[in-house]
Design goal:
Layout lengths: L9 E4 L23 H9 L4 E5 L7 E4 L6 E4 L5 E4 L17 H11 L2
Length: about 110
């Protein structure tokens, strides 16, 4: 059984991106997080918990939330549901390939098949 999770509110940022396609966004470095601070502040000032950043190439794919990776759970009537997260590899992605989400994806797969 899954633990109770408290949902958060995210504001999808169309003005700011977490990283630019073709940049060093795939490197785990403190400087890669500074570009999202203004978008996060504006989201919080607007009453949201954090900003949700879209890809810099098309602005159509979710990359990640400002302070975390992004997962969404869509419950099904009667129990269960679907957990979604951006693809581990995407042609539009400008951030890391998804290695930090691998354990969560493996847990999700395990739970769904047992």
């Amino acid at each position: 059984m899954l633990a109770t999770v408290t949902p958060i509110t995210l504001l999808a940022s169309q003005q700011y991106v977490r990283s630019v396609h073709g940049s060093v966004g795939g490197v785990k470095a403190v400087g890669n997080y500074a570009p999202c601070f203004k978008g996060q502040k504006e989201a919080r000032d607007a009453g949201f918990n954090d900003a949700l950043f879209l890809d810099s190439k098309t602005g159509t794919e979710v990359e990640e939330a400002g302070a975390s990776n992004f997962f969404a759970f869509f419950p099904k009537e009667g129990g269960g549901g679907t957990l979604v997260t951006p693809p581990l590899v995407s042609a539009h992605a400008s951030t890391r390939s998804g290695e930090p989400r691998l354990p969560a994806n493996q847990l999700r797969t395990s739970m769904l098949h047992h």
